[in-house]
Protein backbone atom coordinates (compact mmCIF):
# COMPACT_ATOMS: atom_id res chain seq x y z
CA UNK A 1 0.00 0.00 0.00
CA UNK A 2 1.41 3.39 -0.88
CA UNK A 3 1.55 6.80 0.70
CA UNK A 4 -0.32 9.59 -1.05
CA UNK A 5 -0.47 13.35 -0.61
CA UNK A 6 -3.09 15.71 -1.92
CA UNK A 7 -3.53 19.44 -2.11
CA UNK A 8 -7.00 20.93 -2.01
CA UNK A 9 -8.34 24.47 -2.04
CA UNK A 10 -11.25 25.51 0.08
CA UNK A 11 -14.23 27.13 -1.61
CA UNK A 12 -16.71 29.88 -0.89
CA UNK A 13 -20.33 29.38 -1.88
CA UNK A 14 -22.39 31.92 -3.86
CA UNK A 15 -25.53 29.90 -3.21
CA UNK A 16 -25.22 27.98 0.02
CA UNK A 17 -25.87 24.59 1.54
CA UNK A 18 -27.80 25.05 4.81
CA UNK A 19 -29.90 22.19 6.11
CA UNK A 20 -29.82 18.50 5.26
CA UNK A 21 -32.45 16.13 3.91
CA UNK A 22 -30.52 13.04 4.94
CA UNK A 23 -27.91 13.72 7.63
CA UNK A 24 -26.41 10.22 7.34
CA UNK A 25 -25.67 10.61 3.62
CA UNK A 26 -25.13 14.35 3.87
CA UNK A 27 -27.77 14.98 1.22
CA UNK A 28 -28.52 18.71 1.09
CA UNK A 29 -31.93 20.32 1.00
CA UNK A 30 -30.81 22.37 -2.00
CA UNK A 31 -28.11 22.58 -4.63
CA UNK A 32 -25.26 25.08 -4.23
CA UNK A 33 -22.58 26.88 -6.24
CA UNK A 34 -19.10 28.07 -5.30
CA UNK A 35 -15.65 29.09 -6.41
CA UNK A 36 -12.47 27.48 -5.11
CA UNK A 37 -9.93 29.85 -3.56
CA UNK A 38 -6.25 29.98 -4.50
CA UNK A 39 -4.75 31.03 -1.16
CA UNK A 40 -6.72 28.97 1.37
CA UNK A 41 -5.82 25.31 1.17
CA UNK A 42 -5.09 22.01 2.87
CA UNK A 43 -2.31 19.52 2.25
CA UNK A 44 -2.87 15.97 3.49
CA UNK A 45 -0.71 12.85 3.50
CA UNK A 46 -2.26 9.42 4.14
CA UNK A 47 -0.47 6.13 4.57
CA UNK A 48 -2.17 2.80 5.24
CA UNK A 49 0.27 0.34 6.78
CA UNK A 50 0.40 -2.66 9.11
CA UNK A 51 2.97 -0.76 11.13
CA UNK A 52 0.12 1.37 12.55
CA UNK A 53 -1.83 -0.40 15.28
CA UNK A 54 -4.35 2.48 15.56
CA UNK A 55 -5.26 5.33 13.24
CA UNK A 56 -3.06 8.32 13.96
CA UNK A 57 -4.45 11.70 12.93
CA UNK A 58 -2.42 14.91 13.20
CA UNK A 59 -4.14 18.07 12.02
CA UNK A 60 -2.18 21.32 12.12
CA UNK A 61 0.40 19.66 14.38
CA UNK A 62 -2.17 18.73 17.03
CA UNK A 63 -4.20 15.63 17.88
CA UNK A 64 -7.74 16.79 18.58
CA UNK A 65 -10.15 14.03 19.64
CA UNK A 66 -13.25 15.37 17.88
CA UNK A 67 -11.44 16.17 14.62
CA UNK A 68 -9.67 12.79 14.73
CA UNK A 69 -12.95 10.95 15.21
CA UNK A 70 -14.46 12.63 12.13
CA UNK A 71 -11.39 11.75 10.07
CA UNK A 72 -11.46 8.12 11.28
CA UNK A 73 -15.13 7.76 10.31
CA UNK A 74 -14.08 8.96 6.85
CA UNK A 75 -11.12 6.56 6.71
CA UNK A 76 -13.54 3.74 7.57
CA UNK A 77 -15.60 4.61 4.49
CA UNK A 78 -12.45 4.52 2.33
CA UNK A 79 -11.37 1.18 3.89
CA UNK A 80 -14.79 -0.28 3.20
CA UNK A 81 -14.64 0.82 -0.45
CA UNK A 82 -11.14 -0.65 -0.84
CA UNK A 83 -11.95 -3.82 1.12
CA UNK A 84 -9.10 -3.34 3.60
CA UNK A 85 -8.79 -3.17 7.40
CA UNK A 86 -5.37 -1.56 7.56
CA UNK A 87 -4.89 1.35 9.97
CA UNK A 88 -3.55 4.67 8.72
CA UNK A 89 -1.49 7.67 9.61
CA UNK A 90 -2.86 11.02 8.44
CA UNK A 91 -1.03 14.32 8.64
CA UNK A 92 -2.95 17.36 7.45
CA UNK A 93 -2.05 21.01 7.38
CA UNK A 94 -4.16 24.05 6.55
CA UNK A 95 -2.52 27.32 5.61
CA UNK A 96 -5.29 29.03 7.67
CA UNK A 97 -6.97 28.41 11.07
CA UNK A 98 -9.54 25.61 11.29
CA UNK A 99 -13.12 26.11 12.46
CA UNK A 100 -12.96 29.86 11.96
CA UNK A 101 -15.62 29.99 9.26
CA UNK A 102 -13.11 29.78 6.47
CA UNK A 103 -14.47 26.47 5.22
CA UNK A 104 -11.63 24.34 6.58
CA UNK A 105 -13.85 21.27 6.42
CA UNK A 106 -14.27 21.82 2.66
CA UNK A 107 -10.56 21.67 1.87
CA UNK A 108 -9.93 19.19 4.70
CA UNK A 109 -12.35 16.50 3.57
CA UNK A 110 -11.62 17.10 -0.10
CA UNK A 111 -7.89 16.56 0.55
CA UNK A 112 -8.50 13.57 2.85
CA UNK A 113 -10.79 11.91 0.29
CA UNK A 114 -8.29 12.19 -2.54
CA UNK A 115 -5.16 11.25 -0.55
CA UNK A 116 -7.01 8.48 1.32
CA UNK A 117 -8.56 6.93 -1.79
CA UNK A 118 -5.25 7.05 -3.61
CA UNK A 119 -3.27 5.60 -0.67
CA UNK A 120 -5.83 2.79 -0.42
CA UNK A 121 -5.27 1.96 -4.10
CA UNK A 122 -8.71 3.10 -5.24
CA UNK A 123 -8.93 4.68 -8.65
CA UNK A 124 -11.99 6.90 -8.31
CA UNK A 125 -13.45 9.21 -10.93
CA UNK A 126 -13.91 12.90 -10.12
CA UNK A 127 -17.60 12.27 -9.54
CA UNK A 128 -16.91 9.37 -7.17
CA UNK A 129 -14.39 11.49 -5.27
CA UNK A 130 -16.91 14.31 -4.99
CA UNK A 131 -19.49 11.89 -3.58
CA UNK A 132 -16.90 10.58 -1.10
CA UNK A 133 -15.88 14.11 -0.05
CA UNK A 134 -19.56 15.02 0.41
CA UNK A 135 -19.92 12.23 2.94
CA UNK A 136 -17.22 13.91 5.06
CA UNK A 137 -18.45 17.47 4.71
CA UNK A 138 -21.03 18.65 2.20
CA UNK A 139 -19.11 21.67 0.96
CA UNK A 140 -16.02 19.47 0.37
CA UNK A 141 -17.82 17.94 -2.62
CA UNK A 142 -17.27 21.27 -4.45
CA UNK A 143 -13.53 21.46 -3.75
CA UNK A 144 -12.88 18.22 -5.66
CA UNK A 145 -13.67 19.65 -9.12
CA UNK A 146 -12.68 23.19 -8.07
CA UNK A 147 -13.08 26.24 -10.28
CA UNK A 148 -16.67 27.46 -10.46
CA UNK A 149 -18.51 24.39 -9.21
CA UNK A 150 -22.10 23.32 -8.83
CA UNK A 151 -23.13 20.70 -6.29
CA UNK A 152 -26.26 19.01 -7.57
CA UNK A 153 -28.78 18.40 -4.82
CA UNK A 154 -29.57 14.87 -6.01
CA UNK A 155 -31.74 12.42 -4.13
CA UNK A 156 -29.34 9.54 -3.55
CA UNK A 157 -25.75 8.92 -2.61
CA UNK A 158 -24.86 8.66 -6.27
CA UNK A 159 -26.74 11.66 -7.67
CA UNK A 160 -25.59 14.28 -5.13
CA UNK A 161 -22.16 15.44 -6.30
CA UNK A 162 -20.34 18.49 -7.64
CA UNK A 163 -18.91 19.15 -11.08
CA UNK A 164 -16.98 22.04 -12.59
CA UNK A 165 -19.41 24.43 -14.21
CA UNK A 166 -16.60 26.70 -15.46
CA UNK A 167 -12.81 26.41 -15.17
CA UNK A 168 -11.04 28.91 -12.87
CA UNK A 169 -9.83 31.09 -15.76
CA UNK A 170 -13.40 31.54 -17.03
CA UNK A 171 -13.97 34.68 -14.98
CA UNK A 172 -11.30 36.95 -13.56
CA UNK A 173 -12.87 37.93 -10.26
CA UNK A 174 -11.14 38.35 -6.90
CA UNK A 175 -12.32 36.90 -3.59
CA UNK A 176 -10.87 38.66 -0.55
CA UNK A 177 -11.13 36.64 2.68
CA UNK A 178 -11.24 39.17 5.52
CA UNK A 179 -10.05 37.87 8.87
CA UNK A 180 -12.00 39.25 11.82
CA UNK A 181 -11.70 36.61 14.53
CA UNK A 182 -9.71 33.38 14.39
CA UNK A 183 -11.25 31.81 17.51
CA UNK A 184 -13.03 28.49 17.24
CA UNK A 185 -16.73 28.98 16.47
CA UNK A 186 -19.32 28.34 19.15
CA UNK A 187 -21.58 26.47 16.71
CA UNK A 188 -20.05 24.75 13.71
CA UNK A 189 -21.85 24.20 10.44
CA UNK A 190 -22.89 20.67 11.49
CA UNK A 191 -24.84 22.13 14.42
CA UNK A 192 -26.26 24.88 12.20
CA UNK A 193 -27.54 22.43 9.56
CA UNK A 194 -29.32 20.43 12.27
CA UNK A 195 -31.40 23.31 13.54
CA UNK A 196 -31.89 25.21 10.27
CA UNK A 197 -35.49 24.07 9.93
CA UNK A 198 -36.40 25.37 13.38
CA UNK A 199 -36.33 28.85 11.84
CA UNK A 200 -39.85 29.98 10.90
CA UNK A 201 -38.28 31.39 7.72
CA UNK A 202 -36.53 28.22 6.55
CA UNK A 203 -39.39 27.08 4.32
CA UNK A 204 -39.50 30.53 2.74
CA UNK A 205 -35.78 30.27 2.00
CA UNK A 206 -36.14 26.79 0.55
CA UNK A 207 -39.05 27.78 -1.69
CA UNK A 208 -36.74 30.34 -3.38
CA UNK A 209 -33.62 28.18 -3.83
CA UNK A 210 -34.29 26.73 -7.29
CA UNK A 211 -34.98 30.17 -8.70
CA UNK A 212 -31.83 31.54 -7.05
CA UNK A 213 -29.75 28.78 -8.62
CA UNK A 214 -31.25 29.52 -12.05
CA UNK A 215 -30.56 33.23 -11.60
CA UNK A 216 -26.94 32.89 -10.48
CA UNK A 217 -26.18 30.51 -13.36
CA UNK A 218 -27.67 32.99 -15.79
CA UNK A 219 -25.56 35.91 -14.51
CA UNK A 220 -22.45 33.72 -14.43
CA UNK A 221 -23.04 32.83 -18.06
CA UNK A 222 -23.34 36.52 -18.94
CA UNK A 223 -20.51 37.50 -16.56
CA UNK A 224 -22.79 40.24 -15.25
CA UNK A 225 -20.72 41.14 -12.19
CA UNK A 226 -23.13 43.62 -10.62
CA UNK A 227 -26.12 41.30 -10.74
CA UNK A 228 -23.88 38.43 -9.59
CA UNK A 229 -22.80 40.43 -6.54
CA UNK A 230 -26.38 41.41 -5.71
CA UNK A 231 -27.52 37.78 -5.71
CA UNK A 232 -24.48 36.60 -3.70
CA UNK A 233 -24.97 39.26 -1.04
CA UNK A 234 -28.71 38.65 -0.73
CA UNK A 235 -28.05 34.92 -0.35
CA UNK A 236 -25.44 35.46 2.37
CA UNK A 237 -27.83 37.62 4.39
CA UNK A 238 -30.58 35.05 3.84
CA UNK A 239 -28.45 32.25 5.32
CA UNK A 240 -27.52 34.31 8.35
CA UNK A 241 -31.17 35.26 8.88
CA UNK A 242 -31.91 31.55 9.15
CA UNK A 243 -29.07 31.09 11.63
CA UNK A 244 -30.22 34.09 13.70
CA UNK A 245 -33.82 32.88 13.77
CA UNK A 246 -33.05 29.20 14.46
CA UNK A 247 -33.71 27.71 17.86
CA UNK A 248 -31.30 28.18 19.56
CA UNK A 249 -30.32 31.31 17.68
CA UNK A 250 -26.80 31.49 16.25
CA UNK A 251 -24.97 34.80 15.83
CA UNK A 252 -21.98 34.32 13.53
CA UNK A 253 -21.37 38.02 12.88
CA UNK A 254 -18.93 40.03 14.97
CA UNK A 255 -18.74 43.83 15.10
CA UNK A 256 -15.89 43.62 12.57
CA UNK A 257 -18.09 41.61 10.19
CA UNK A 258 -20.67 44.38 10.20
CA UNK A 259 -18.04 47.06 9.69
CA UNK A 260 -16.94 45.26 6.49
CA UNK A 261 -20.55 44.88 5.31
CA UNK A 262 -21.06 48.62 5.77
CA UNK A 263 -17.79 49.39 3.99
CA UNK A 264 -19.06 47.47 0.94
CA UNK A 265 -22.29 49.45 0.88
CA UNK A 266 -20.38 52.74 1.20
CA UNK A 267 -17.93 51.87 -1.57
CA UNK A 268 -20.74 50.86 -3.89
CA UNK A 269 -22.24 54.34 -3.51
CA UNK A 270 -18.89 55.60 -4.76
CA UNK A 271 -19.07 53.32 -7.79
CA UNK A 272 -16.79 50.51 -6.55
CA UNK A 273 -18.54 47.20 -7.14
CA UNK A 274 -17.72 45.08 -4.08
CA UNK A 275 -20.08 42.53 -2.53
CA UNK A 276 -19.83 40.42 0.62
CA UNK A 277 -20.62 36.88 1.54
CA UNK A 278 -19.47 34.60 4.39
CA UNK A 279 -19.71 31.00 5.50
CA UNK A 280 -20.90 29.94 8.95
CA UNK A 281 -18.53 32.29 10.73
CA UNK A 282 -17.52 35.93 11.15
CA UNK A 283 -15.03 36.30 8.26
CA UNK A 284 -16.53 38.08 5.24
CA UNK A 285 -15.36 37.15 1.76
CA UNK A 286 -15.57 40.05 -0.67
CA UNK A 287 -16.01 39.72 -4.41
CA UNK A 288 -14.66 42.40 -6.70
CA UNK A 289 -13.22 42.96 -10.16
CA UNK A 290 -9.41 43.16 -10.48
CA UNK A 291 -9.46 46.90 -11.29
CA UNK A 292 -10.95 47.71 -7.86
CA UNK A 293 -8.74 45.44 -5.75
CA UNK A 294 -6.14 48.02 -4.59
CA UNK A 295 -8.78 50.51 -3.52
CA UNK A 296 -10.68 47.86 -1.52
CA UNK A 297 -7.53 46.55 0.18
CA UNK A 298 -6.54 50.06 1.26
CA UNK A 299 -10.07 50.68 2.62
CA UNK A 300 -9.90 47.38 4.57
CA UNK A 301 -6.62 48.52 6.14
CA UNK A 302 -8.48 51.49 7.61
CA UNK A 303 -10.93 49.25 9.51
CA UNK A 304 -9.63 48.67 13.04
CA UNK A 305 -11.48 45.38 13.55
CA UNK A 306 -9.99 43.76 10.44
CA UNK A 307 -6.94 41.63 11.24
CA UNK A 308 -5.86 40.53 7.78
CA UNK A 309 -7.05 40.30 4.19
CA UNK A 310 -6.21 37.33 1.96
CA UNK A 311 -6.70 37.87 -1.76
CA UNK A 312 -7.74 34.83 -3.80
CA UNK A 313 -8.18 34.00 -7.44
CA UNK A 314 -10.44 31.21 -8.66
CA UNK A 315 -8.40 28.00 -8.73
CA UNK A 316 -8.66 24.37 -9.86
CA UNK A 317 -9.64 21.53 -7.55
CA UNK A 318 -7.97 18.84 -5.46
CA UNK A 319 -4.92 17.09 -6.94
CA UNK A 320 -2.15 14.74 -5.90
CA UNK A 321 1.32 16.09 -5.24
CA UNK A 322 4.69 14.33 -4.83
CA UNK A 323 5.89 16.00 -1.63
CA UNK A 324 4.70 14.05 1.44
CA UNK A 325 4.21 15.59 4.90
CA UNK A 326 5.90 12.62 6.63
O1 LIG B 1 -19.95 21.52 4.46
P1 LIG B 1 -20.45 22.00 5.77
O2 LIG B 1 -21.26 20.97 6.50
O3 LIG B 1 -19.33 22.57 6.61
O4 LIG B 1 -21.47 23.21 5.50
C1 LIG B 1 -21.14 24.35 4.79
C2 LIG B 1 -22.05 25.46 5.14
C3 LIG B 1 -21.74 26.79 4.49
O5 LIG B 1 -20.36 27.00 4.40
C4 LIG B 1 -22.35 27.90 5.35
C5 LIG B 1 -22.38 26.93 3.11
C6 LIG B 1 -21.71 26.24 1.95
O6 LIG B 1 -22.44 25.85 1.03
O7 LIG B 1 -20.48 26.14 1.91
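Q: What amino acid sequence fits the structure above?
A:
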Amino acid sequence: MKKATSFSPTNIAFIKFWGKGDPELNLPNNGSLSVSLSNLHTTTTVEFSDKYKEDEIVINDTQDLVESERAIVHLDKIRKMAGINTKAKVVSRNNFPTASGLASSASGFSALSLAGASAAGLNLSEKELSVLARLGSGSASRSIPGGFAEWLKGDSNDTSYAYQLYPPEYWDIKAIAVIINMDKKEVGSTGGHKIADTSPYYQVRQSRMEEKIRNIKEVMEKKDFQRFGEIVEEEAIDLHLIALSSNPSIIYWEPGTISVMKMCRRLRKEGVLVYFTYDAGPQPVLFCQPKDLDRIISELKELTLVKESIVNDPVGGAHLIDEHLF
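Q: And what stands out in the fold?
A: Residues 13, 16-18, 32, 103, 105, 137-139, 189-190, 193, 279-280 surround PMV (CB under 6 Å).
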